[in-house]
């Protein structure tokens, strides 16, 4: 995807939130979705 969008000035990065407390991963997972989103935003801003 990054190669296809490079000519348009778009930067593509893979960013995974980790295992989240959800129905899919189970509620024993280490991160709450809001915590994960907050961390991902910090990565993107800095």
Structure description:
With 46 residues, the protein is mainly α. The protein has a domain at 14-45. 37% of the residues lie in helices and 0% in strands. The protein is built from two helices and no strands. The protein has helices at residues 2-5, 33-45. The relative contact order is 0.17. The mean pLDDT is 92.
Nearest-angstrom radius of gyration?
14 Å
Specify the biggest β-sheet. none
- The shape is elongated
Structural class: mainly alpha
> Regarding quaternary structure, how should these chains be classified?
single chain
Order of SSEs, N→C?
Answer: HH
Number of helical elements: 2
**Overall average pLDDT:** 92
What is the straight-line distance between the termini? 23 Å
- Outline the low-pLDDT stretches: none
Beta-strand share of residues:
under 5%
* Count of extended strands: 0
The portion of residues assigned to helices is 25-40%
Strands, helices and their partners?
Blueprint: H1 2-5, H2 33-45
Question: What's the short story on this structure?
Answer:
With 46 residues, the protein is mainly alpha-helical. It has two helices and no strands.
Comma- or semicolon-separated keywords:
about 45 residues, elongated, about 0% strand, mainly alpha
